[in-house]
Amino acid sequence: MDLLSPILDVARCLWDSTAKRAVYIRELPENLNSLRTAMEELKNVYKDVNENVDREEKLLLKKRTHVVDGWIQSVEAMEKEVTDLLAKGDGEIQKKCFGTSCCPKNCRASYKIGKMVLRKMEDVALKKTEGSKFIVVAEPFPSPVVMERPLDKTVGLDSLFDHVCVQLQDEKVGSVGLYGMGGVGKTTLLTRINNEFLKSRDEFDAVIWVTVSRPAIVEKIQQVLLNKLEIPKDKWEGRSEDERKEEIFNVLKTKKFVLLLDDMWEPLDLFAVGIPPLNNGNKSKVVFTTRVSTVCLDMGAKGIEVNSLEWEEAFALFQKYVGENTINSHPDIPELAEIVAKECAGLPLALITIGRAMAGTRTPEEWETKIKMLKNYPAKFPGMENHLFSRLAFSYDSLQDEATKSCFLYCSIFPEDYEIHCNELVQLWIGEGFLDESDDLRKARDAGEAIIESLYHACLLEINYPNSDYKEGLTKCVKMHDVIRDMALWLACQNGNKKQKRFVVVDEGKSVTSQEVEEWKGTQRISLVSLTFEEHIESPSFPDLQTLLLGNRRRLFSLPSGFFSYMPNLTVLDLGNHFELDGLPMEISKLVTLQYLNLSNTGIRKIPMELQNLKKLRILILNNMERLQRIPSQIISGLSSLQLLSIMNCWQATMGNCRGLLKELQGLTFMTEVSISLCKSVVLPIQTLLDSQKLQRCLKHLKVEQCSDMNSLHLLFPYLQEVELSCCFKLKDVILHSEKEAVHFTFPRDKYFNHLYRVTIHYCPKLIRLTCLIYAPNLKLLHISICNSLEEVIQVEESRVSEIASNLSLFSRLRFLSLLSLPKLSSICGQSLLFPSLKLMHMSGCPNLRKLPFDSNFKVSEKLVGIIGEQEWWNQLEWEDQTITRQLTPYFMPSSCKQIIGEKQSLSDDRIVEEKRSFTSMARSRAFFIEL
What DSSP element (H or E) covers 335? Predict the structure, then answer.
């Protein structure tokens, strides 16, 4: 037995080894299936991990971790290995000894494959476990050394930028302070410095931008630094200022950094923030901007002043933001642009802001209005107040002053989608006292126009020119976007306090109850449109009411008895468009604070004497009151504060004692603006106007109709804007001055029509010329119809006319020219004209007009819409240059509608008298314009 024991041990070992190897061979088919299954499970984990990685990389812009990336690559490699191994195993199983079903043909090969399969199963299981444990598969990219900031191409900063770069390269200079006035370009320069470091990313470890502003709060500055240095929040969130300082210090002391601090108003203790001392060792830099030069000294910085731009650079910057199309849209604009740019005195922010505001402003008139605003009210120009307008265009809170805010909110009291005539709106603002800072009516109008422009450029108002208006686009209107109006009404009605309701606006078609009216007691402004009361309303009591607008274009609104008795603070009252309202209650005399009263388009027959008690009334509008029989004497003279009176188309009232009315106006100290219609016997009223220097300066709109006693009309009205002459049967000439007296000494002759923009002349059969229009450089609309004797509009053969016409740029602002039924007209003007602003030309019934005043220098205005006339007339026109024909032919539109009623070529004087009623009616209805 002792001899057999060693032999048995050897035999046992051999058997165990053989049996173990036999297992690899025997269990190979089962293990192959297990490996195949395990690999499928690993591939599912791989897909999950890969999808997570793709999502974070594509959506969250992160970068996969190195561990995950290595795992993904190893799984992809393992998949190939497993595929090859499975193929080999399956092939080996197919190889059997002849006549057997289980004995491999090559035991050694089967053994090796079986052993590899078991090891690969272990590897697959391990990878599966690793993949299942991934929580973070991707991480944020590290912050770049420098973040690029938005910057347009700079103008005028090159030399200063180069100087700053030289200072930053000087090892002895640790900090640089850029100082100068607000808007001079300090932030722009700092931005350019920031972006310059993009070209040399390796020079510094970190370039950090911090906007400091006022007051400088250390905690906020530290938070910016901590975030940009990517210091984990658990190391500083909730910590004290000193602890945050230590964290910042310990990171920055190991880095070479540039710290850019914008908008500093006072010295900042950099060490208190955590900024390491700047020395030759770390070569770090600090650059900051400030409006206070002493900040540079207090912080030990190298001060560099940022000055305004030189003229050429300034004008280049201004033109860049105005735009080439706007600059070139009218010959007068480049010179006006220089005036505006010079008002900015080289200040870049002003040049940019005003340039943007002027972009798209393509008429000289608008430029001139804004020039006045810049010179007289610079703080009210869009963007000029508090350096915010262009940046805060959608914000009510950012409007420049309380007057502008009040004017903006006021627009919300008009109905939704209502087009508000700017002229009427400004008059309302004046009546409300919003523009009281201006010391006279004209300055107040300019201020009001400036506010409208500012609200438009702040995207709070829309501006348009309704084509349906008789004046063909000359009437500027504003409208509020519905959402803006809702926001404005919320501000006005609640002002953040639901208990306060300063505005009450009832839109068309709505009705109210007496209970609702009772709730209006504390209201400041009420606007009622087509209002219906559900029940009888007692005399309302509105002790705080300042504005009452009762606009109604369709229905009669009955005023309850004693309606005005309890409105002690009413400032503005608009009763216009109540066509059937035939009288005013006597208690209107109690409105002693009233400053604005509009009775236009009402059926009132007589102005009550009680009106003279309104001693604070500044604006009285009595237009289109066809039933008004007279204005009793002493009423107008009793309105001691009156500044504006408009009494247009009140024929019965002005045919009476018109001279007495004018003399009453002459005696009013503050009277500034008069619009009046004169009918029939007009010679004496016009002479009354001419005899008074005060009335000469007050007249704004003059309409003369059905006049048979006037051979010539002398105009000595320097602020006249509109002239309408209709059915003046003996009128031969309109002249600027009489032969016996000189022009008013304060106005040179060529300035007397400087404000005239609209001239309408209809049915003046003996009129022979209108040469006086050479003195109207700002004329926008000229309409002449049924003037049988007119041969030439401007007769250049008159002395000095050609020279004056050239100097004043004749018709350079004219937009609309309409010449209808002028049988003898052979020439518009004896010299060529450019018409750079022309939008529409309408010629009809002018058979002898064979040539238009165009020569080879003529260029079609970009504003031109069309030239309307008979096809036969157009075909017979004579042209100096065929190039002009080719330019204008695409704009010609043949007349295809009914011709003017008065196109009969010859009317006897007797028939003229007989038919004057029909022509007057036609003039009023504006039927002498052909519908487009």
Answer: helix 333-343
Question: Taking a C-beta distance cutoff of 8 angstroms, is the pair 846, 786 a contact?
Answer: no
What are the structure tokens assigned to 594, written together? 């009233």
Q: How far is the CA of 694 from the CAs of 202, 673, 714, 747, in angstroms?
A: 77, 10, 16, 13
Q: Is 16 exposed, middle or buried (0-12, 13-18, 19+ CB in 10 A)?
A: exposed
Strands 462-464 and 733-735: unpaired
Strands (E), 693-769: 699-707, 712-714, 722-728, 733-735, 758-762
What are the tens digits of pLDDT across the range 75-100? 888 888 888 888 877 777 776 654 44
d(CA 69, CA 86): 26
Q: Are strands 138-140 and 62-64 parallel, antiparallel or unpaired?
A: antiparallel
Give me the helix-helix angle, 28-58 and 66-94, nearest 10°: 150
pLDDT of residue 791: 94
CB 907 within 8 A of CB 765: yes
Q: Enter the tokens of residue 384.
A: 């000029």
Contact (Cβ atoms closer than 8 angstroms) between residue 195 and residue 151: yes
Query: Do 247 and 231 form a contact (C-beta atoms < 8 A)?
Result: yes
Q: What is the pLDDT of residues 336-368, one digit of tens each?
A: 999 888 876 677 766 887 788 788 788 888 888
pLDDT tens digit string along 490-521? 677 654 444 456 787 776 656 666 677 777 78
- Cβ(244)–Cβ(226) below 8 Å: yes
Which pair of tokens denotes residue 614?
Answer: 């309104």
Cα distances from 892 to residues 817, 853, 885, 929, in angstroms, run 14, 16, 10, 17
Q: How far apart (Å, rounded) are the C-alpha atoms in residues 491 and 525?
A: 13
10 Å CB burial of residue 903 (0-12, 13-18, 19+) is middle
Residue 17 reports pLDDT greater than 80: no
pLDDT at 20: 58
Give the Cβ contact number of residue 687 at 10 Å: 13
| pTM of the shown model | 0.62
Using one digit for the tens of pLDDT, what is the confidence trace for 168-186?
A: 888 888 899 998 766 678 8
What residues are paired with 794 via a beta bridge?
829
Of residues 539 and 82, more confidently modeled: 82
Q: How far apart are CA 489 and CA 32, in angstroms?
A: 79
The pLDDT tens digits for 225-242 are 888 877 777 777 778 888
Among 763, 762, 766, residue whose Cα is nearest residue 732? 766
